[in-house]
Amino acid sequence: MKITLLLTGKTESLSVRNLMDEYIKRIIHYTKFELIEVPDIKNIRSLSVEQYKLKDSENLKKYLEKSDCVVILDEHGKELTSESLAGFVEHKFQTGVKNMMFVTGGAYGFSEDIRKMSAHSISLSKMTFPHQLVRLIFIEQLYRAFTIIRKEKYHHP
């Protein structure tokens, strides 16, 4: 299975990027992994929230195939424990999912068409995090999921 993290906007913080790269190096020992950063929408102030969501949706959909298992990272999604995320990922491996796409939206979240394309919606927390940190938190949790699946000494329940 290949896992892709599809992001709106670039990772601007060098220290966050370095930590992300460290966890990505660890993840690729378990599965194929790709990080795709879709350019942010320009002139955001001239757009309504709905116009922004639609433009962001158009950019994201360029990378999504109908055969992908699309999982949006969304504040309204289901909250999972680290163990639950591990079980979720392991189940997708076992059921033969070829491409799993975890997707973060832009500043205003997802348009309805992206929500309809998604098979699942996951929330990382009830708290709000900056987009830059969400990337790092999710990548660390994905690495943690693999260590749980393999029963390795990283996660301490």
Could you explain how this protein is built, in words?
The chain has 157 residues and is α/β, with parallel strands linked by helices. It has a single domain, classed as Alpha/beta knot. It contains 5 helices and 5 strands, in the order βαβαβαβαβα. The chain has a 5-stranded parallel sheet. It is globular. The model has no long low-confidence stretch (mean pLDDT 94).
Describe the secondary-structure layout.
Blueprint: E1 2-8, H1 14-27, E2 32-38, H2 49-61, E3 69-79, H3 82-94, E4 99-104, H4 112-117, E5 120-123, H5 131-149
Parallel strand pairs: 1-2, 1-4, 3-4, 3-5
Order of helices and strands: EHEHEHEHEH
Q: Any idea what the radius of gyration is?
A: 15 Å
- Beta strand count: 5
What spatial order of strands do you see in the largest sheet? 2-1-4-3-5
The best one-word shape is: globular
| Low-confidence spans | none
* Terminal CA distance: 26 Å
Structural domain tally: 1
Question: Which whole number gives the mean pLDDT?
Answer: 94
Architecture, CATH level 2? 3-Layer(aba) Sandwich
Largest sheet: 5 strands, parallel
CATH fold call: Alpha/beta knot
Q: With helices defined by DSSP (H or I, 4 residues minimum), what is the helix count? A: 5
Seen as an oligomer or otherwise, the chain set is: single chain
CATH class descriptor: Alpha Beta
Name of the CATH homologous superfamily: SPOUT methyltransferase, trefoil knot domain
